[in-house]
Amino acid sequence: DFPFRRGDIVISTRSKSGTTWVQMICLLLVFQTPDLPGALDGLSPWLDFLIVSKQEVFARLAAQTHRRVIKTHTPLDGVPLDERATYVVVGRHPLDVAVSLYHHSDNIDRRRVAELTGQPETPRPPRPPLHEWLRGFVEWDGDPREWLDTLPGTMLHLSDAWARRHGPNVVLVHYDDLLTDLDGSMRRLSSLLGIPVDEARWPALV
Q1: Which of 17, 18, 83, 159 could join 13 via S-S bond, C-beta 3.0 to 4.6 A?
Q2: From 73, 103, 166, 174, active-site residue
């Protein structure tokens, strides 16, 4: 029931795939300056983030008058595909995703998350060493929709986007391209999103 507007940019990624990086790139293109008018999470809210109420997120986005940049970790088969919006899906090598995810999870205050979401806190058993944990990430063989942050879940997200790659409002971005050619990747996004940038501004944005 989210009310889309023409020009909305929806960034759909698996966790640890370059979400924040691509949010920032899109905001730099929208505002045409590295001096953004606010914090990233305020300018580009996470739409399906359970810690903040839907009403609050909707209100924040409704108040924005610039072209909106919206974050989601939901694959495209789980979100409304509105012809007024452009959907940017970011891919990263699944093992790089997994290693980043392993370390990222150490930084989560699970008790506080449970308080904010109203969910019971579930004790987490001690995690195995990284190598052993990676084997579990790769070998887990359940329904990927039940656990998206696994190899099957990552591949579901990416293969679904790949199947839609010829759609007029689906844009695929690869993390490695951002690493090896940030300038070229930003120019490609600028073109596909229909956001022209004066050549003199490019060095500062990149």
Answers
A1: 17
A2: 73
